[in-house]
Design goal:
Blueprint (H helix, E strand, L loop, with lengths): L3 H10 L9 E9 L8 E8 L5 E8 L2 H20 L3
Antiparallel strand pairs: 1-2, 2-3
């Protein structure tokens, strides 16, 4: 279900010293208001090896940055329990 930007981040994370492993469950994005200056919101759900789900949300004027923020948010939530960083 991931898209190119989420795949790229995942690939980069596998090259770090941290054991960050997850599966994508769902991903969505939308505009928060109408107009060309609207902020974007992205929602990412990932799961660990046991299937436990972790959600992340990101908002930015740029949808790519909102998506990256959402994934980082989900990974941070997972890290609170797994302590891989």
């Amino acid at each position: 279900m991931p898209n190119g930007r989420l795949d790229a981040i995942r690939d980069a994370l596998t090259k770090t010293k941290y054991d960050i492993q997850y599966d994508f469950i769902t991903y969505a994005e939308n505009a928060l208001t109408v107009g060309s200056k609207s902020k974007a919101a992205s929602y990412v759900c990932i799961a660990d090896e046991t299937g436990k789900k972790y959600w992340g949300v990101g908002t930015q004027p740029d949808i790519i940055l909102a998506t990256v923020n959402a994934l980082v948010s989900a990974i941070n939530r997972m890290n609170k329990e797994k302590k891989f960083m």
